[in-house]
Write a structure and sequence with these properties.
Elements: H1 3-17, H2 22-25, H3 30-50, H4 55-64, H5 74-85, E1 99-101, H6 106-115, E2 123-133, E3 136-145, E4 150-159, E5 164-166, H7 175-186, E6 189-191, E7 219-220, E8 223-224
Helix pairs in contact: 1-3
Length: 233
């Protein structure tokens, strides 16, 4: 491509970005017209990537985070923000994989994670339970912001004999199903849930199947419960 053609295409791209497509469409040389349209498409993609995160929102997040943080990892950054806004809420040292919280302030923290403009975690992608041993159960939450396209994981551990965590189903409605399933399988109670009942098993089922100490009951309403399933292999 000659220097004159490159200059012409640059001028046409500038016009196209400002909304003037007539100049490009009027080019009689099909090859040159194709090159101009290709260059315009590339310029639009570059502009879209550059404005994917609104500068003012990005600046808000950066200013809100302590400049002395040891890591650029988002779990650590937001962990510092939570610790500053909700003192005493962290349950362990910050790390790159997740944020470990105590259950006490969880509902207020959850509201803030969704409503704070610089975070805006509008999507609860996954929530499940875990029997982590040492007489502890754990709820794990994976959040995504569709506005900022960033992710974090929250973990909350509770004693097996007092497994209570504030419900967040009124903040993220998908939490309704997630919390009921976690309760059904692990026996973690989500205080404040408006329909707190089992989801997969009958209400009068004994025990929580995914706990490490779970023992299958012998019968259910007089029906024997086989412990070995034959013919699965």
């Amino acid at each position: 491509m000659s220097v004159d053609q490159e200059k012409l295409i640059a001028e046409l791209v500038e016009k196209g970005l400002s909304g003037d497509m007539d100049s490009i469409n009027a080019i009689e040389d099909r090859v040159l017209r194709s090159k101009a349209k290709s260059a315009l498409a590339k310029a639009k993609r570059a502009a879209k990537v550059a404005t994917k995160i609104v500068p003012s929102e990005k600046k808000t997040l950066e200013v809100s985070i302590d400049d002395k943080q040891p890591s650029d990892n988002l779990n650590q950054k937001i962990g510092h923000m939570i610790d500053k806004k909700f003192p005493g809420s962290l349950d362990s040292e910050l790390n790159d994989t997740h944020i470990q919280l105590k259950p006490d302030q969880w509902f207020d923290i959850a509201q803030w994670l969704k409503s704070e403009p610089s975070l805006h975690f509008d999507s609860l992608q996954c929530h499940t339970g875990m029997d982590v041993g040492d007489e502890k159960l754990e709820a794990r939450y994976n959040f995504h912001s569709m506005t900022h396209d960033h992710y974090i994981e929250i973990r909350i551990a509770v004693p097996r004999d007092n497994a209570h965590i504030p419900s967040i189903e009124q903040i993220w409605r998908i939490g309704d199903w997630f919390e009921r399933e976690t309760y059904d399988m692990f026996g973690i109670f989500f205080d404040g849930h408006r329909d707190h009942r089992r989801m997969l098993l009958p209400e009068d089922w004994e025990g929580y199947p995914l706990r490490k100490d779970y023992e299958v009951q012998e019968t259910y309403h007089g029906i024997a419960i086989p412990k070995v399933k034959e013919g699965w292999e």
